[in-house]
Amino acid sequence: MSLSPATSIEARFTIPQGVCALSYAALDPEHIIKSVQDDSAGAVAVFIGTTRNSFKGKVVTRLEYQAYTKLAIKTMADILREAATSVSRSAHQTSLHGVPSLVKCAVHHRLGTVPVGEPSIVIAVSSPHRKEAFVACEFILEGVKQKAQIWKREYYEGEQEDEAEWKANE
User: Fold this and answer.
1) pTM of this prediction?
2) Topology of the domain covering 11-88+99-157
3) 23: part of which helix (H) or strand (E)?
């Protein structure tokens, strides 16, 4: 009898800084972008990472993602918290405004099979100004890639499926 791994399950975690989600469903970038929009935000930065069709000269047919969900969702939340405290304000924004340098953040990562051309990660960040939004978006992306307990498996055209190896999500 084969059981699917209980560790790679869907999860959603909301914290004051934003939302983290792991899902087997296709990601909806427009919905994620709308989730961070706010009247106090003058900017929304977005990163959409998609499955590309090649890697080091090989034709990629699809990616597969698994996560140690309980730990990965906590790690993603820690990254959002760190982004909110470490991204500094623009020079033209004073602390008198009462608005934080980041308004809302969202990071959604897909699990399971992700076909070529489809998003595997969507990050959206709203901020009063563009600089903070861009910096935070990249900070969150690099943090998730380096720290979150998510692994990917690449499948290549012409290779046996059992030859596909699990890799760190870089």
Assistant:
1) 0.89
2) Aldehyde Oxidoreductase; domain 3 (3.90.1170)
3) strand 18-23
